[in-house]
Every structure is written in structure tokens, then in C-alpha cells.
Amino acid sequence: MVQDFKFKTQEEKEEKIKEMKKFLLTILFILVGLGLSLSPIFFLYHSVKAESLTTSVYVIICGNGILEAGEVCDDGADNGTYGPSISQRYCNSTCDGYAPYCGDGIVQGIFGEECDDGNNDSGDGCSATCSNEGAPSPGGGGAGAIIPQPETKVVLKGLAYPNTWLNILKDGEIVKKVKTDETGEFRAEISDLNPGTYSFALWAKDKSGTKSITYALTFQVSKGVTTTIQGIILPPTISLDKTELHQGDLLKIFGQTIPQKTVEVRVSSSEIVKKVLSNKNGLWNLPLETGNLEEGSHQTKARVWLNKKEKSGFSQVLSFNIGKAITKPESPCSKSDLNKDSKVNLIDFSIMLYWWGKHNAPADLNGDGIVSLVDFSILLYCWTG
Amino acid sequence: MRIWYKLSLVVIILFFFVFPWGVKGAVLYLDPPEVEVQPGDIFVEKIKIDTQGENINLIAADLKYPLDILNALDSNLGDSIINLWIKPLTIDKKSGTISLIGGIPGGYSGKISGDPGESDCLGSIIFEVPGLIVKKNDSSPEIKFLANSRVLLNDGQGTKANLILKGAKIKIVSKRKAKLKNEWKDEIKKDTLPPEDFKIILSRDSNIFQDKYFIVFSALDKQTGIDHYEVKEGKGDWQRAESPYLLKDQNLKSIIKVKAVDKAGNEKVEIFNPQKSSNRREGEVNRQKNAFSRFSLLLGEILIIVLVGVLIKRAMV
User: Which residue in chain A has the smallest CA separation from B12?
Assistant: First the structure.
């Protein structure tokens, strides 16, 4: 049944039209308001984001007197001090065990011990103070009097790829190389530091020579304590068997990470998320059917999951083209080594400084015609030290 | 109908007040956000960053301060998280602007859980409140970030991070409540440590200084920051210098000394003997390799041209 609008008077009609107009205007007003309100969300949803790299990393300070996760003990300023007995033993300088003490079973002449039978009982040939029974006691200023100067150092602990050399950078410069074990675990100790804020970074090459991203951590190093950074996970390496292919071709995405862990591979522009398990050598391989991918440029990246909660940051982002594409995919770091010495370091930075703000210069990494902030950001991303 | 107006009003209020807080992005801010000072005071404002979970690697910040009530005296980069500077914290006293451009190799994702320090500081500015201030009644003095400040993501593409800027409000109190502050003097007094050890690297590249020898160096000082560098070649005088530094002695016969001086005047001198440098040999080897590869390429090209020529000639016959 069609409702027929009939108005008794002209006035009533005009009133109704006016009301209708008001109503429509209000709706329009609300829609505009809503649009404006939600625009930041849409903007953020579509913006490119580099996700946080520090997902499970935490600082442990050995020497603050607080027993933290991963520490066996922490006696604050007394760490590293010789203990005259088992009950009076002190923590060592890295908080992963105890400093020498009378009763640890090791004869430490430097602390005045003549013997150490692993207890503090007298009458068994070695006295409670670790001196030969029957012989005069070491006495005086010996045991307990030697207090070593506490060191200011940093210990980095985490997981990378099995049996690989890890480059450790302090404030952008390589200071140490450590080898990971067959599980990918590593431990690096850097000493002789002044207190202050430091940036420690690390990177490695996988079995096929592909470089990982440079993973950096910035934190405060306090005087006379050991600052341990635990839970570091180096993001996986990632490679492609080809970068230009036809729709329907098989693309091989592969790399290396921690052994027997789940690798999450993402393909953007199609929002594909695939999971694959790394083998006992940490190698992973994902054959990707490209039949469902649209023609054009695509990007892929990967990260590793230790368990349901702990994950690494993302690997380097690689590009590939399906079908016709305007630009040839290129690694962001292909031009960063300005002096071609296979390193991206202070010399390349100096060359960039020399060309800063100049047009059509060799340090123009993104090819926009000028050496500027974006070029510097690319250089920092590709940094090897 | 009134209900619609009320609803629309709520939506507009949401837009202006609620959603901007929900916007995620790195925050560049000054610490403390509000400072109460009296004429003659010297105080420190720290420039800090909260990455809000983003992995960033470059910060370019510009600030403006009210010239009528503040003098920017100095800067301190000792506690900065930045390792490489394109433009260290620079004060322009004429225009009342402060700017910096710096980066962190490998990026920065914010403070690590359990870190007790201020590992989010980009640098500090030391301000002085003049003894006599001609105060304008209508002004609410503020140190502001300028809108052209930028933070770039560590994504290999230099993508701009969403950025929120928060300056600092200055409240001038005329009555003397306490002793005059001089936070900077205290910092300088405390700094007795020299700058960190650093390396002098000799290099030569066709991209800069017309392929002449130059040195690069970069020192850090964890207390008050590096004030300047000086270079001495052989028996020459100490001269203020910056990296990269073009060597005067291109025969590399002089011993090179580089001195890093911090804001408190502590010095660290590094010595470099080019005659014993492996860099020099590496540089030469690289150059020879490059020259050889260029020569091989040229030879290859000539061979191809000759071959094509011969083939064409044969085909014509």
C-alpha cells in the first residue's frame, strides 16, 4: 500500500519540508563528522610501518642488588668479592654464579687459601678458614680483604642462526665477532666501557652468504655493573629465487633462522600470511603459488616465532614483480656501499656527508635527484660497521 | 530532532578531543614539559623521543624558543642515543631556532624493558633566563617543535613516521624563592672522563675530494658530548677540523693526530701512522682491482665490437 502524503494546510507542508531539510542536514553533518573522526584510523591502517624489533628483549643489571630473572644471585656492590665461608659467599661479577669462596673446593692461594676441601668443617685436615690444620692460619689481611674493582660491562644473550659468526657493533662500529652454537645460541661480552647510553647492534650472514638486517638495541650502561641483555632474537634472513615472474609461476622464498621454529612469511599488497617450519640447520623454504597474486609489484618479509608469545622482528623487505611492472625490483642496500669495499660504515657516511644537499650525486641512494634525509635513512638501515 | 544535534555534537567532540590521542606515531617531546624559572636561572631541556613501538633510524628536529625571555647557551649530546650526526644540535641565536639531524645505525625501537636510564634522549639544550625581562602580558612562552620536524622509519625506504610534537611551557616567576639554578655548570663539573676511544680511518675514493687521500673519524663522549675536533699533521699546528678531512700531506709521510675535545675540556688524542696503515694497502689493492676490472670490461667491449664487425663483414661477403 502506498502511503499518500497529504497535508491539511500549506503551512503544515512547508513545516514538514523544513523539518525534512533539517533532518537531512543533520545526517550530512554526522557523516562528515564521522568521516573526519575515523580518517586517522584509515590513514594509520594504510600507512607503512616498521614493527618493533624488541619483542622479548629485556635488561638485567648485575650489581643493583636485585635478583632478576636469569640471575643466580646479586649482591650489589659486593659482587665478585671473595667469601670467607659458604654462608658468607658473594655473587660473581656476572651474577651467573658465585665469586671464589672458602668451601668451593678450589684452592685459591691469591686469597690466602692453603687448602679447600669443599666445606667449612674443622678437624678434617683443612680448617673452616681454608688453612692446613696444624699449620698456622693465614690470618690477618688475607681472605676477604681483596675486593676487585667492579667492571662496567655488557653481556648480550640470544638466538641467531646455527654455527654462524655474529658481528657485534658498539655505537656503529664492529667491536667483536662471536660464533653461535648448533642451536643458534650466542653470548657476547663487551667490557672496558664508560658508563653512558650505548647502541649495540648485531648482524650475521646465513649459510648462503645472505646478510641479516642490522638489529640494534639502545640502553644505559651503569658504572661498575654488568648489564645483561637477554632474549635477543636476530630476525631471519630472506632471499628469493627470482624477482620478476609471470602470474602462476612458483616463487621460492627462503632463508635461515633458529632451528625447528615456525617462520611466518608475509606477502603484502595481497596480505598473504604463510607459515613454514625451519629444519635442524635453521633453513626454511616456502614455495609460493603466484596464481592468486595480482600483476604488479609485491613485497615479502619474514619473522620467526619461538613460541606463542615470543617472536623476532621482521627480516629485510624484498620486492618482486608479477607480470609487467614499471620499476625493476632492487634491494635497498644495493647502492649503500659507496666506496665499494663490501662494508657500509663511517667511510660511506663521510662520502654522504660530502655530497649532502647536492644534486645528482653518487650518494643519492633513492635516485630522487638530491642527497637528503631518505638517503641517510637507507644508509643507516644497511649499516654493517 | 534534538537527539540528532546532540549526537552530531558528540561526534565532533570525539573528533577534536578523543581521536587525536588515539593516533599512533612517534612522539618528539621536551622534558620537562613545564618549567618554572626566575630571572638569572640556567636550566636544561632534554629533547626526547617515544617511538611508540615503531623502529626508526633518523631524526630531524627543528625547534623555536622565545628570544625575549630565553637565551640558548649551549647543547649537550653526551646522553644522546644518536651515533651519527649530519647536523649536531645547532643553535641559531639570531632567529631563536635549534635544529638537529642525526641517525642510529640499525635503528631504534625505544627503551628496553628494565632499562633504568634515559635511553630516549636525543640531546639537551641549556637555556638561560636573562636577569632583566621585558615581559609581554599577552604571551604564553613556549619552546616549540616546528612542523617540519621529521622522523624516518628503519625500513630501507626512508618512510616518514607519523609524528606527534610536544613542546615545553615556560613559567617565569619574579619572586626569588630559592637559590639560582645552574644545572649545566653541575654537569660540566661532574664530567672528568675523556671522550671514548675512536678510530682514524684513511681512505681514498673517486667519489670525493678528487680521489685524494682523506681521513674519517667519529668520537663519542658519554657525559657532556663532543665539542670539537682538532687535527695535526706531522709537525704542523693543531687545527680545528671535521670529518671527512682532506689530508694536506698526500704523500702520507706525516703522522696524523686527531684530538676529540668534550664540552668540559677533556681530551682524547688518537694517533695514526699512514705508513703502517693497512687501509692504505687495502685502498691500493681496491684501486688496482677496480682499475683491472675497468680494463677487463673495456677489453671485453672492444672484443665484442671487433667480433660483431667480423661477423657483419662475413655476412656481407
Answer: A33
Judge: A220–B116 Cβ closer than 8 Å, yes or no.
yes
Q: Are B218 and A40 an interchain contact pair (Cβ–Cβ within 8 Å)?
A: no
Residues of chain A with C-beta less than 8 angstroms from the C-beta of B196: 171, 194
Q: CATH for A239-322? A: 2.60.40.1930
Could you read off the pLDDT of A171-193 as tens digits, one per residue? 999 999 999 999 999 999 999 89
Q: How far does the CA of residue B149 sit from the closest CA of chain A (Å)?
A: 12
**Mean pLDDT of all residues in B271-284:** 71
Yes or no, beta carbons of B57 and A68 under 8 Å apart: no
Residue with cell 598473504: A272
CA distances B235 to B229, B230, B258, B268, B272, Å, are 18, 14, 13, 19, 14
Give B-chain residues touching A34 at CB under 8 angstroms. Answer: 11
Model confidence, pTM = 0.75
Which chain B residue shows the shortest CA-CA distance from A36? B15
Q: Is the pLDDT of residue B216 over 50?
A: yes
Average of per-residue pLDDT across A309-338? 86
Q: Is-contact A258 A280, C-beta < 8 A?
A: no
CA atoms within 13 A on the CB side of A301: 20
Q: Look at the block and give the residue holding cell 631541556.
A: B45
Q: What is the pLDDT of residue B304?
A: 79
Query: In this predicted complex, what is the ipTM?
Result: 0.78
- What class has domain A151-233? mainly beta
B200-278: CATH, from 2.40.128, 2.10.260, 2.60.40, 3.10.20 = 2.60.40
Q: Which residues from chain A sit within 8 angstroms of residue B104, using beta carbons?
A: 199, 216, 218, 380
Please say whether the beta carbons of B207 and B172 come within 8 A: no
Domain residue extents for chain B: 23-190, 200-278
Residue B242: pLDDT band by 50, 70, 90 thresholds? very high
Measured in whole angstroms, the distance separating CA B208 from the mean position of its chain's CA atoms is 22
User: Could you tell me the three cell numbers for B226?
Assistant: 663532543
Q: What's the average model confidence in pLDDT over A137-160?
A: 70
Q: Is B30 helix (H, G, I), strand (E, B) or coil?
A: strand
For the domain B23-190, what is the CATH code?
A: 2.60.40.680
Question: Which of B99, B111, B118, B157 is the best residue to mutate to test the A interface, defined by the most A CB atoms within 10 Å of its own CB?
Answer: B157
Question: Under CATH, which number does the domain A332-385 receive?
Answer: 1.10.1330.10
Q: Do the two domains A151-233 and A239-322 of this chain adopt the same fold?
A: yes
